[in-house]
Amino acid sequence: MASNLILYSTQGGLGAKVRLQVYSSIFQQFPGIRNVKRIEAVWQTGSFNSADISKSLKAVASKFSTAEILPKAPFAETYNQRMLANYVPVYVMLPLGVISNENVFETKTVMEKQLKELREAGVDGVMVDVWWGIVESKGPKQYDWSAYKSLFELVQESGLKLQAIMSFHKCGGNVGDEVTIPLPKWVLEIGETDPDIFYTNLKGNRNEECLTLGVDNQPLFHGRTAIQMYSDYMKSFRENMSDFLEAGLIIDIEVGLGPAGELRYPSYPSSQGWVFPGIGEFQCYDKYLKAEFKEAATNAGQPEWELPDNAGEYNDTPGSTEFFGLNGTYLTEQGKFFLTWYSNKLINHGDEILDEANKAFLGCKVKLAAKVAGIHWWYKSDSHAAELTSGYYNLKDRDGYRPIARMLSRHHAIFNFTCLEMRNSEQRADAKCGPQELVQQVLSGGWREQLEVAGENALSRYDCYGYNQMLLNARPNGVNSEGVPKLMMFGITYLRLSDELLKENNFKIFKEFVKKMHADQDYCPDLGKYNHEIGPLERSKPKISMEDLLEATKPMEPFPWGKEADMKIDDFEGVLANLVRKLFSMFK
């Protein structure tokens, strides 16, 4: 019995020895505590004096082997049930090109091995892009789901859950894009005769990453509008993947709403020369959006107002432009009108596509989700220029994210946000970045709108600092040993599965990250045990008026955040290696 208790309560390696020594110290200070899982709670609250960690492993074992130890079952079960309420599921994004451009699942043997490794690490599931440019490549409504079916079967056999992204954008041209998967060829051919189907900047440069929202309701695609194409694609997915949906394999449908699948304008395309931390450019100069703006301005009694021509270029700074500079155009009535129109068009775009997604998956036991980008550079400047060009009208006195959250609430959708791993101290000072404050603002807004909020890292990280920042954001006020924490994210998706992640030390740290996200609990396959049970998708609620959406722009103080995660990853080997390097440097 004693050895079972020790094995049940510790992890391998150096961490195990330290925790056993901690338990020895706790026994001395709290002799009334005899059950291991109750000791575990004391360990997590940190109510012991670490200076007393001195007893040997033998002494610890002898403590556990005494007849005073009470039967563990009643206490352990109660403790585990309470701690499971703090369990944040972890998903891992699969490689972008897991299905080739030729619509072939070429890496089945390698993927089978990697999925097994993820499952053994305690990972709950994986996320995969289901590329429009692959599935409907042959012609309008000519869908071929065969390769994705093979992949889904493998995921199912691996015992993992699946998040599927309806990827209506091109892969290639964004940070981290290692492969190129264009839009369907027959769509690009329409663009050859009508290039205004693509987002366009002031200079007239077209971006073929995705279709402009200006053609959402234009029947330009063999008689179909853009939204009708997206809707037909999602309906076909449901019909062809019904077995996986009914089996509970697919738990999330993330609906692509723009570049990189995010609800934003493609304002900072590296394919057109943008580099961090450029402010980006507005993307509303195709003929369709220009006509819509002219109509909106005329209806507002200002027919002379035009789209901005003074907002600079991709790699400018805010202060170098007339629009974003001190007392800039963005503060004038004309500037406010434009920014309201520009951001509202984006919200309405997401709203209409999500309404179609809701109808396509109505009754399925899945969650809908939408992703919003973490535009953290220039966040601490007055004009928030990079956010404004992306379509997020966010200023000190105006919340640009809570209206998006309110829109998502009518579709019962998860709000998925990025850049969870980033810390202010890691960013360039001259770019006035504020990833920590941005995450705090956006997540708080989502929770205030009663949404389930999820997130992911923006860039691949393998270090404990990035992981600990994600752990902090997942449970900003820490775990609650009595049950559900005050604030908790619905899920975390790690970007992304790679050979680098699976390297021995990287994967060792990642497994510890998963364990901490699970609140030190074992992998739990039963979603209901941690309050994630998924019921049939209900019909979207009535459309929210623009007045009600704009009411959500009123800024509110974000919820308080802890300074650091209470369940942290301690990279003992990394700390030791750094210490050795410093010692050697002293003698050089």
Automatic annotation (TrEMBL):
Name of the protein in question: Beta-amylase
Species classification: Eukaryota, Viridiplantae, Streptophyta, Embryophyta, Tracheophyta
Annotated GO MF terms: beta-amylase activity
Catalytic activity: Hydrolysis of (1->4)-alpha-D-glucosidic linkages in polysaccharides so as to remove successive maltose units from the non-reducing ends of the chains
A Pfam entry, by short name: Glyco_hydro_14
Gene Ontology BP terms: polysaccharide catabolic process
Family the entry assigns: Belongs to the glycosyl hydrolase 14 family.
InterPro entries per UniProt: GH (IPR017853), Glyco_hydro_14 (IPR001554), Glyco_hydro_14_CS (IPR018238), Glyco_hydro_14B_pln (IPR001371)
Organism from which the protein derives: Corchorus olitorius
